[in-house]
């Protein structure tokens, strides 16, 4: 029997998955932090604030991280995830407004 070395693409795939999970965790934390301060916010304003924070690498005093590129689809995906988890909710009379 010959032992083959581990394929490089498998390691690269694992690294990509790990990077995507970290990105999702950061986005979820940003969304939660912004809504904790604002209490309620229109979904469009929330998306713009999260994207801006990602580009600057910080949100408010005391929280700094490496800046990275994110898109509105990434943020909206995390918003849906947080809605499904029960961390966020929509106003019944105005479903485009999110509350923490």
UniProtKB/TrEMBL annotation:
- SUPFAM superfamilies for the chain: Winged helix' DNA-binding domain
Residues annotated as domain Cullin neddylation: 19-96
Q: Which InterPro entries match?
A: Cullin, Cullin_neddylation_domain, WH-like_DNA-bd_sf, WH_DNA-bd_sf
> Which PANTHER family does the record cross-reference, listed alphabetically?
CULLIN 7-RELATED, CULLIN AND GALACTOSE-BINDING DOMAIN-CONTAINING
Q: What is this protein called?
A: CUL9 protein
Q: What is the scientific name of the source organism? A: Himantopus himantopus (Black-winged stilt)
Gene (name only): Cul9_3
């Amino acid at each position: 029997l010959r032992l083959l070395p581990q394929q490089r693409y498998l390691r690269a795939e694992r690294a990509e998955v790990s990077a995507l999970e970290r990105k999702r965790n950061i986005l979820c934390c940003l969304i939660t932090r912004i809504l904790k301060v604002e209490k309620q916010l229109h979904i469009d304003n929330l998306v713009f604030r999260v994207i801006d924070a990602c580009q600057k690498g910080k949100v408010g005093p005391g929280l700094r991280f490496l800046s990275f590129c994110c898109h509105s689809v990434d943020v909206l995906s995390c918003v849906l995830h947080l809605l499904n988890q029960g961390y966020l909710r929509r106003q019944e009379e105005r479903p485009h407004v999110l509350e923490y």
